[in-house]
Amino acid sequence: MRDVAIVAFAQSAHRRRTDELSEVDLLMPVLHEVLGATNLKANEIGFTCSGSADYLAGRAFSFTMALDGVGAHPPISESHVEMDGAWALYEAWVKIMTGEADTALVYAYGKSSPGQVRDVLTRQLDPYYVAPLWPDSVALAALQAQALIDAGATDEPALAEVAARNRFAAADNPYAQLTGDVPAGGHLVRPLRTGDCPPIGDGAAAVILAAGDTARALCERPAWIRGIDHRIEAHGLGVRDLTDSPSTRLAAQHAGAFERPVDTAELHAPFTSQEVVLRGVLGLGDDVAVNPSGGALAANPIMAAGLIRLGEAAARIHRGQSDRALAHATSGPCLQQNLVAVLEGESAHA
Amino acid sequence: MTDVLSAPLVVEFPFTRSLGPVQSAFLTGLRERTVLGVRTEDGTVLVPPVEYDPVTAGELRELVEVAPTGTVTTWAWNPSPRRGQPLDTPFAWVLVRLDGAGTALLHALDAPGPDAVHTGMRVRVRWAETRTGAITDIACFEPYDGEPGPAEPTPHTGEFTDPVTRIVAPARLDYVHTPGRAQSAYLKALEGHRTVGERCPACRKVYVPPRGACPTCGVATAEQVEVGPRGTVTTFCIVNIKAKNLDIEVPYVYAHIALDGADLALHGRIAGIPYDQVRMGLRVEPVWSGAAGGSPHPDHYRPTGEPDADYDTYKELV
Ligand SMILES: [Zn+2]
C-alpha cells in the first residue's frame, strides 16, 4: 500500500454573501494559495477532483465554470462529485492508492447566498415520501435533537454550550464567519435555536494530496492518511435510530480510529445536536481538542465544510499541533452519510 | 459591488417519477384511506414501505395494512411554516409509528402549540379532502385519544382498481442570481451594443464572453478589451428542427463567430443570406434587436459584404 498525505490546505474567508464573486472568482485565490504552498503548477498535478452542488447555484453543470480556475486546457485528468469535497478527496485518495497519480488537487466550493438553503436541501430527500412535504434542513436536524433530548443524551443548555465552545474556538480562525458570543436566539425549529444552527455562507477550500517521497518533498511534516472510509445509512429517517450514528462508527473503525487515541478531532456537525451524536459514537474524551477551528457552527460553506474538516485536521499536523487527528465529514439529513479519516504526522523521534 | 448585476432566477419543474409495485400500492392505498406497510425478512413492518430491505437488500413484497393511528416517536415545533410544507399555520414535524408498524413516517402534526406535543403522544391521520395517490393525501396528523389500532397488521394484496403508477412532484426554488464582475461588465456593455472581452495577463488571449478566468492558465483575467463588432464565421451548422416557442423559420444557420480581436469564438444565428450559402470564413456583423426592453444580445449576424477571411487568420479558433 502507498502512503498518501495531505500536504497543503487553503480556504477562503467565509462570508454571508459574495455577490461580486462568481464561483471561479471565489475559488481561484484558494487554488493559487494551495498550489503556491507546494510550489506546484496546475499542470504538474496528476489528478484533480472537486465537490459542489448545482442546486446551490440553481444552474446545471455549474462546476464546469469553476474548472477555468484550475487551467483545464490543455486537458487534465479531472473528476467531480455532486457532494461535499470530502468525498472528492476520497476519490483522489483512491486514484493515488491505485498508482494512477502521485499528486492530486481537491477543491470544493459552495455559494449558499443566491437561494434559500433550507429549501434547496429538501431536494436531496426521498422524492416519493419526504420531499413533497418540504421538510427543511433545520426541521430534520430538530427532530434528531428532540430524539437526543428524550433519550437524556443532552438538553437545550448543553446544546448552547456546544455552540459557545465552537464559536469561542473560532476566534482564532481568521476564515470563520461567526465567532465569539453568538446569542442563543429564538427557536428556529424547536428545540433548535438560531445559535444551534450553522451560519449560511459562501466559501471554498482546497487541499493537495501526494504519495510517499513526493509528499515529503512538498511538505515538511505531511499529514499521512492512515485510514479513510465512508458509510451510508437507510434513507428513511423513521427506519434509523436518530440518537446513534452506526455509519460513523463503522467508518471510524475501518479507518483505524479506535486503534489508538487521537489528540484532535475535526467533526462536521453543522448542528449542535449532531456534535453530541458524533462525540458519543467516536468515544471522544475531554482530552481531545474537538473542532479547534470552530467547526461548521462557525463557518458552513455547503459542499466545502467537510473538506475543510480534513484540511483543518491536516493543518494542525503540518504545524506540529497534532500527532494523530480524526477528521469527519457528513452529507445528507441527520448525519445520513459519514466519512472518517485518521491523519498522522511522522513522529519527531522516529 | 454596485457594478454587479443581479436578477431573480426561478428553477421550477414538474418531476414525473414512476412507482414500483410497493410504492404504487402504498400511494394508491393512501388515496383509498388505507395505510400499507411491507414486512421485512426479520418480520419488521416498514411504514412507509420500500421495495428492498434496508438491512439485507433483499426484495420486499409482503404488504400488510396498518392502523391510521399511531404514536409520536420524536417531534420538532415549526413556528414559521415555509412554502410547500403541509400546513400554513405553526405545526409540529413528527415521526409517527403507526399501530402495527415497526418504523416511523415523517409528516406534520396539527396542534395548538408546542406544549400540546410530546414524544409518545397518540395521533391519527387526517385525510386530505382531495386525494390523488401521494404522500400529501395525508393532510397531517391530529391528536387522538381513542382506542389504539390492532398491534398486528393484517395481510393486504396491495391490489386496487385504477392503481397510481407514477407521481408528479412539482419543485420550485427561488434564487437571486449574480453573475459576478466579469459577466456583469459583459452584459452591461451589450446594452450599449458593444462587446467586451477580457485579456489573460499570462497568455494574452482575449476571452469573450469573459468569465473572469483563463481556462488555460488558471489565472484571473481583468483587463477589458472591446472586440468586434465584425467577425468571421469559423464553423456552422444548419438547424432543421423548429424549437418550441422559437419564432425562427427553419432551416437556419447557427455559427461560431470569432469577433475581430477575440481569441475565442462565440455563437450566434446567421441571417440575411440563404442558409446554404453560409461558409467558413464569411465576414459578418451583429444586428441588434430594435425592440425596447428586449434581449440585449444581438438578434443575429449578417454578412458585411467583405471578401471572406483567409483560413490562416482563424484556423486556431475553429
Ligand atoms: Zn491565459
TrEMBL record, chain A:
Signal sequence extent: none
**SUPFAM superfamilies per the record?**
Thiolase-like
* InterPro entries in UniProt: Thiolase, Thiolase-like
| Annotated protein name in UniProt | Thiolase domain-containing protein
Q: Which organism is it from?
A: Streptomyces durocortorensis
From TrEMBL, chain B:
Residues of the ChsH2 rubredoxin-like zinc ribbon domain: 192-219
Q: Which domain of life is it from?
A: Bacteria
The stretch of residues making up the signal peptide is none
Ranges of residues in domain ChsH2 C-terminal OB-fold: 64-127, 225-288
Q: Can you name this protein?
A: OB-fold domain-containing protein
Organism equals Streptomyces durocortorensis
Its lineage opens with: Bacteria, Bacillati, Actinomycetota, Actinomycetes, Kitasatosporales
